[in-house]
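Re: Re: token formats

Sure, here are both.
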Amino acid sequence: MSKSASASQSRYLQTLLATTALVSAGAVQAQTETGQTDQQANRLEEVVVRGVARQFRPEEQNTATGLNLSLVETPQAVTVLTGDMLQTIGANSAYEATDLVPNVQRSGSGFGFSQIVMRGIFSLSRRVNSIRLDNPVTSIRGFALERTEIVRGPATAIYGVTGSFGGEINSILKAPTYDFRLSVGAEVGSYDERKINADISGPLNEDGTVQGRLVAQYHEYGLPLDIRGEDFPNYEDMWLGAVSWDISPSTRVSLTHYQQGRNIDPWDGGALVQTPEGNLALPDADPETWYFSHPDQSNETANINFTLLELDHTFDNGWRAQSKLARHSYDEDLAYFYPFGPFGAYALGDDEIYIYSYDVEREGEDLTFNQSLGGDYELFGRDHQFFAALEYRDDQEPSRFQLLNSAFQGYASMDWYSDENYDGEQPRFTDGSPFLPVAGDREEFFGVRQILLEDVTDLKLSLQTLVNVTDRLQVLGGILYHDSESTTTIPRNQGEDVTPPTEDKVEYSETVFRVGTTYDVIDSWGIIDDGRVYYNYSEGFEPQVFTNEEGDTVSAPQEMEQHEIGFKTEMLGGSVGTSIALFDYEITNIEVSSSFLGSFGGFGSTVLEGTQEATGLELELVGEILPGWNVMANYAYMDAEILNPNNTRSTAPRTTPKNSGAITTTYEFLEGPLVGLRIGGTLKISGDYGFVEGTSNVDRFGEQPEAGAHERVDLHASYAPRSGPLQNFELNFNWKNIFDEDILVAKQGNPGYGIMFIDQQRMSLGLRYKL
């Protein structure tokens, strides 16, 4: 949502052109000066090595397929984000770095979730070291990560069954190193932000066969709100401890524990507006006062623990076996006000909504065992690869979900904290009555509405093989078998104990396939080192339980098929990579209402007749295009729609623009008086997108709002002297959204409680010491 579209767009274009010209001029000057004398050329050659160490494109290009494939050889769209890239743009997690990935969008943080939409599909679950985590605290802190792999589309034979058809996010935790490393830092920023972190790694014995690593971070900050008399403190902490032991040159065992906790205000946004004509529209609201809660009654505490024991052995024939045993647990307590709208609906005033209380408790613990074996084998005189894996997951205790009764608190308006309704100490409702915090035990005060227990066991078997048909043609085939059993028990529902408890047991088994091929069309031609075309067919499914027309609970998964073709290159000695991907998918068996009432995939009697279809294009360039000049650029086109046979019109998925793109660029001075200085910026451009999902909402409200187009500009800078007494220090500066663009996203597809502001303007300054 632009404040002044034409004026701001002009400013952005001017800024982009000026930045590009400055960076280009600096790069050209650096190249010209390097050719003047042999002495200067030798000096530049040394500096380029340091520049490569700070480049966007990671040196390690193998993905987590289990096969020995680089990114250019992988027949699927994959983006790798390094820790240095996250630091460059001031991102605290992969969630805050989605601008770097085409067709991946942030969708707000309602209910305490870090919500991401990938290729038009909502994605919540994440993977850590390829182990899937299902918990409400989903954003692993970026300071704990070596890298993050984002696979777009079903990752059937890569990670197993995808948690979301849109793709997978796999975070690789930092591991112990053979050499000694030390990094300590501090950061301050807007909204009372303060952050300290430390990372120490290295050998623990004389011969270096035992290594250890300890990583820790403490982060506190306020919300980007300017409301008189109120404070919004948030606290997050994280620590990682890891030990590795080289039992022999071919055998290594590692133990890693990751813990993350937080105590925050969940800051849940608000609702859309219903116009007098009955349509939905975006509110004319100030982001700095867009808050419908109270700090005394708006709180979330959450903790996750992840412990991983790994055994890695390489046999004499080169085959590699990995055994992983992971224990994962989480707990979350959530309490806050619940703004239910849209504004002006339900015979309320044009700017009024209902305010309810909302309390949730979640907890769970599971154990996962993963065994894999992969390597080369010879057939018909050629070397090929295979990778086989078994994974078994079992809930140690049934995951528990508890919901308290939602109590009506009063009516609120869009000027909730305006001068006439706010006395400086507590907010007032539209009728003038003050907000009265709940005293005492909230569970006792509200009462428990629902308790849901779920016990799940999963068994997955996968096999994939890469066949080198010719020197240029490779064919990848994969198969995945998934067997699952879950028991859902409801001992309390609608505020009443259920005697005996309701128990639903669901069992299913599913087999899905993947076929991919790559063909090497370019080999050392000009600046292109390697160029490959690829095709990928992948299947996926997502388990679901629904109530059929007879009122019976039935299990039937949603199913997906995707076709993807593309072209990938490596250029300039591997320092630059490009990719283009064209894909088309269809998701079937989506539950919809069996009548013309209800919502898309909602409650009540449903049938599996809904579909989601999409066609898209993604372009990406990552790398150091000139010594010291790094670029990460992408463009995405997405045409997606949700179809319901009950309705004549379709709707687009929420927060999924048809056109979007971003460019992040930095230039690092490699010689002269400014050596070690790196400057750059980010330009993110997005077209309009939908704020409401579900074709039944079209019948109810008419045309759905499609807006949200924006252009956001960020600036980044760092300085790391290459010599002298300060050579181990690095200074970092980030200025997010320098033109203070208002950006709204749909955190929920329901028009009642759907939107929030993101990417508010902020600045941060950090200092780091490294050895």
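Second one below.
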Amino acid sequence: MKSLIKLTICFLTFLQVLGIQGQTFKAKLDELSNSLAKVETSKSTFDLSITSELPGVANFMQTETTKKGKVTELAYEFNFADIDVNTVRYETSKDLIKVQLIAKQNQKMIKSTVNGEKVSFTKEFYMLAADVDNARQIVDYIKELIPISNKITENRLSLKGYNDRLAWLTKNIFTVESGKSKVDQVLEKDESYPASVQFINTESTSKSILKTSYEFNLSNINERGVFFKNKGSDFVITIPTKRNLKAIKVVNNGTVKSYVSKFEIICKSVENARELQKVFQDIIPLAEKRFKASLPKKLTIKKGVELINKKIEKVVSDKETLSQKLEGDCILTISQMSETSKKKENNTYELNLIDINKEDVEVAVKGKKVHLYINTIGKNKFIKHTRNDDQQKYASRIDLICNGIEDATVCKETLRILIEKCTKNKPKTPKTLAALTKELKKVTLGKLTHDQKLESLEEGGVKFTSIQASNKSSVENIQEFKLGDLNPKSIAMKVSGKKVTVEIATNYQEKIIKTYKDGEIKNYTNKILLYCDSIENGRKISDILRKITGKK
């Protein structure tokens, strides 16, 4: 109750201050208005007036009547807060004395209308003076009005929190006339995710109607990039994304188009543009907090896999239906079934989450599709890829396809949680030759099969036999060595195309491994090569080798 009373008092105080500032502005503007006099030159007579409907904002009118009776009416709408106080001065031009007003940073923020029809925006205009004393008086009044208008403009909006600002935005984006078109503009809340909105622009001409929907999340907008500018006879505000990510979904007359990184809202006036800019800039950090709070924080691996599956289960585009599914836990199998009117294709990927770079799981957009790039650590080709039951080359990346930026972001955060869990919970590695022997497999690569086995020899020796066979011939290779002569730091799992191998070399690269080929003694060597049937098999072989060759 006390907080409500304090808030009410603060709000009433704010209104009171704003009211006082408005009264001060009105009084000073009346003084400026009273100082404007009819100006006569050798060829024309000028009638001048200045009024205001919104504190800080003025409408200056100049009506010129020539000696021949031609009447030209110039109208300028501007905010004194936009005028550079250092440029307000008077100057003479033939038989005229003019007081110049130039916008800050030479921005075209002054609305100019000629004879009530031709509208444009300019960076400067002039108020005419009857004589030099009148000019000095006008300069003084303008310089007094500028700081008053600055305070009014800064304090005009009194909005609290996200919902208050979103409600204001939905009410202050208007239908406008742009050239020969009528443009209906609406900002609507999207309930699918916190901070999701939809901006709908319907442009109507005598010949056609184009309805364009921009679907996006306010948390993806770059608050520093929101700015307004004049564009022909319009004033527009630009809404860009962070890092120029194409995070804004575009739908034209019901047809999905490519994602874009920005769009524009046509403003009713400069003041409308200024206020829209401020409210957008204020709401974006609040939107970030709301959306971030909705992302998963703690998940079991099972729940994480289930959550991702819900987001990626089916993605439908113009010509393709993509079905996707994750199975497993830390060791995942990801299936992607693509179906078009012409063909079906099934891709399967096998990977271990401990191989994935948590910091290199990123959202990207290509055309109409939202991708989630999942990259391995060091770009190692540790992802097994099978297409239509035919094994492909090992890969270093897999792309999940998502229905939207928000879905992709949820999947990204979930994957990062799972990667961290799997990395922390690596299984223990056995330290026995028997365990290594168990991991050696019969590996088929193309037309060749590698049959491998390990045996213990007397006095701590080890015998490694590898039989390489094809449908035409076979070769038996035998290597004899001692585990203590092998360098655990040299152990490396290598991937080339569809082949996975583990290599280990002797200490100091000494050629002390006795070698036989089909029973014949060959030169001593310094390296052993083991074939693996998968990345996981290679990982286990590498880990066990490090254990049994490591120094105590």
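The radius of gyration is 37 Å. Helices lie at 2-35, 132-155, 161-171, 270-294, 301-312, 405-424, 433-439, 535-549.
- S.
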